[in-house]
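Hi all, long-time lurker, first post. I run a small reading group and we've been trying to get comfortable going from sequence to structure in the token notation. Rather than ask abstract questions, I figured I'd post a concrete chain and ask someone more experienced to write out its structure so we can walk through it together at our next meeting. Sequence below, copied exactly:
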Amino acid sequence: MWEVMFWPIVACVLLPWLLVYLGLHVVQRGIIFIDIAMAQMAALGICVAVLFRLELESWTTFGIALAFTLSGAGIFSVTGKRTSQIPQEAVIGISYVVAAAAAVLLLSRAAQGDEEIKNMLVGNILLVTPREVWERFALFAAVGIFHFLFRRNFLLVSFNRDGAYQKGLRVRWWDFLFYAVFGLVVTSFVRIAGVLLVFSYLIVPAVCGINLARKTADRLLIGWCIALLGGIAGLFLSYWWDLPSGAAIVCTFGGLLVLVSLVALCRNRMQRAR
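-- Answer (accepted) --
Happy to help. Here is the structure in token form:
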């Protein structure tokens, strides 16, 4: 068992910490579906590589996927609040639908297109290699350092947008920088995890943290614990019951979110009763 499970478990331990942090930004900005839209854009780039029979782990494929993701970063940064009368969620939804439809059209022309559609959605983290884990961990560490260096501006734009305008920050520029780095992370992770799992790692732990804590540090800690528990538990469930690993982890996250929501509800009722 451990020969199959070791590196997937390592991936679930080493990689989600940055996704949880970015997920808090996404939830606070109120653009919940931007991560799944950008993940789908990255997947669309991978579909282009599949159509041209490029090596999926090559830098060329990564560059194509990143180019599609950065185009989404540009779109979302200029359609944010105060820049458009059209709600940004509408733009995000349209982008996701168009990217998903385009991916299906491309894969319909590729050999084994049905299998690739499945991989695009749920991935197969059980097949992750040591090289993939360490490459992504190095990238995530670099992005984490970048966010730490500019944390004040990123946090201000995400958590107090009006205050960012009042301080004279170029909010649209900081939006693009956030989305660009966010897209880099999503592009690197979507190939091994799939679109749905990327969305789950970004949103579910962050929502659980927000349900149970008020301070950002406490929310991060809770989110990391949920990400660790959900990832590893989902992996073992997929192994024991012979289920697709990505789908099993996503459903495990769903169960944890329901449990955390019930705990938060009970706690709030007890506090009101006092």
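A couple of things your group might point at:
The chain has one domain: 2-199.
The first helix runs from residue 2 to 14.
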